[in-house]
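Hello,

Our lab assistant flagged a job as stuck in the queue for most of the afternoon. It eventually completed. Since we weren't sure the result was trustworthy after the delay, we are filing this so someone can double-check. Below is the sequence as submitted and the structure that was eventually returned. Let us know if re-running is recommended.
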Amino acid sequence: MFNDDYSVETPPSSHQQQPGTASTGKSKKKLKVQEKFGWRKVEIEKVDLFWKGEPRQVPGILETPLKYFQKFFDDELLELIVEQSNLFALQTEGCKLCLTVEKLKVFMSIMLLLGVIRVPYYRMHWEAATRYPQIADKMGRQRFDKIKRFLHFNDNSKAKKSGEQGFDKLYKIRPVLGHIRSKFLEVTPEEHHSIDGQMIPFKGRSNLRQYLPKKPTKWGIKVFTRAGVSGFVHDFEVYQGKGTLGEDDKEPDLGVGGNIVLRPISTLPD
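-- returned structure --
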């Protein structure tokens, strides 16, 4: 431990320009500053590092993928999406979307299938020659396109503009991110965790898109995550550029590296 009091000595340098002398035009070497620290002996406080949580129990019967999906995309979140999508249709076109939770579930099922069954363009699933019954029989193409057009997650009329207090680049999807994150935090944490940045592959248009040429996934959206040894993500925060971490006055600013670790571990149980 060192005191706040220390002296700085600047050794004489032949490169230092004297008053009244003309500059030689040559590049100057940086002066080396020697710092002297006053050390003192103190007792280091012992930190209890023993794991106090309950061991995770592996369920005897594994649930279906649908059940796991519904743990995060539950009816509460779906009702919010339905409400905001119907509102957005009225705000922009003055028309009724008449979207319900059941219709939204069908729409989301089709979206998941479109990611698995690849075709040159998605409308081929409704065309006569390439019709796919598991999709076309569940919802008409025009109805699917209409829901896709008005799908929304937050009220645009309440969004803050860039430069205003409280501006959020993720405002349009903030309710979804907040809901899913709260579900992640409900899962019993493991004993060992790792905190690191991850890339969600993405090449679309977004001011959140990052390009990291030295990473395996070069284009995408950067996310700071706290994951257990099982690979499950217990907490996350989407990187929005400078100022993403350390802006809260209630939290100490330990620099980028320190804040990356401090923020995710703050949600661990005591």
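-- support follow-up --
The delay was a queue issue, not a problem with the job. The result is valid. Confidence is low (pLDDT under 50) at residues 1-18. The helical segments are 65-72, 75-92, 101-116, 133-136, 141-150, 174-186, 255-265.
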